[in-house]
Amino acid sequence: MKPPGAVRQPLPRIFFDVDPRRVSRALLGKVLMRREGKTLLAGRIVEVEAYLGADDAAAHSAAGPTARNAVLFGPPGHAYVYFIYGNHFCLNVSCLPDGVAGGILFRALEPLQGLEEMAQRRGISIKGSRDLRSLTSGPGRLAEAFGITRERDNGKDLTAASSDLWLADDGFRVRRVQVTPRIGINKAVELPLRYIIAGNDFVSGRGNRQ
DNA sequence: ATATCGATTATCT
DNA sequence: GATAATCGATATG
Predict the structure, then answer these.
(1) pLDDT level of residue A8 (50, 70, 90 thresholds)
(2) How confident is the model over A163-182, as pLDDT tens digits?
(3) What are the CA-CA distances from residue A143 to residues A5, A32, A175, A189, A195 (Å)?
(4) Is the C-alpha dihedral spanning A19, A173, A160, A47 positive or negative?
(5) Position A8 in a domain
(6) Is A204 contained in some domain?
(7) Nucleotide nearest residue A60, measured CA to C1'
(8) Stated in angstroms, how far is A70 CA from C12 C1'?
């Protein structure tokens, strides 16, 4: 694991300029970072879902470009943030070249740094491992813990050195990737496009123990 | 332990 | 007017 300073370097745009399925695998084990003044938030990516541009009825881009999903059709490496169920924000990163839709939904993180700040924003106190899990296990939860909103972050270039929200490689290597159908959708239910770090306790849902 | 349900609003039909 | 890439609370075994 590199020292904290080394993860200031964001993953480059070319990292995201390929098929979402490939980017999904590559993103597992990487770190989502947020800078807020002198506070640094960090969480290891343990669960993501790929949303394809074409041939994927579950993707927000399925019916063509709109004001809401415009980022998915734009250049790779940008944040697509949407508001859902009148309650929650969810974070995605755009993939594939400009003009081609595709994205990845961040579904769960393992909190690494800034846990107190995350707990404060989540409105919980962290005593046991159960509380730790509820910090960032789930797309709405991790967005809240990282203070992600549509107004603040939608369209943000996550590969820019000046960005307060970015993705980094701290040297962690994933042992085994597990692929399953996606969660919480009603269309294209069977497609195996959910990627998790096998055995990781911070994967959302009923756990991932072996 | 699992199951069901209400919250609450931007977006699209 | 219906729906949604969710969450947390409540009910029940």
Answers:
(1) confident
(2) 999 999 999 999 999 999 99
(3) 24, 11, 26, 24, 18
(4) positive
(5) no
(6) no
(7) C5
(8) 45
Task: Domain count for chain A, please give it.
Answer: 1
A157 is a domain residue: yes
Half-sphere exposure of A10 (CA within 13 A, CB side): 20
CATH code, domain carrying A105: 3.10.300.10
Rounded Cα distance between A76 and A92, Å, is 11
Amino acid letter, residue A86: G
Render pLDDT for A75-121 as a digit per residue (tens, 0 to 9). Answer: 999 999 999 999 999 999 999 999 999 999 999 999 999 999 999 99
Domain hosting residue A103, numbered range: 13-197
A44 Cβ neighbours under 8 A, 6+ residues apart: A29, A30, A31, A109, A110, A112, A172, A202
Distance A82 CA to B9 C1' (A): 12
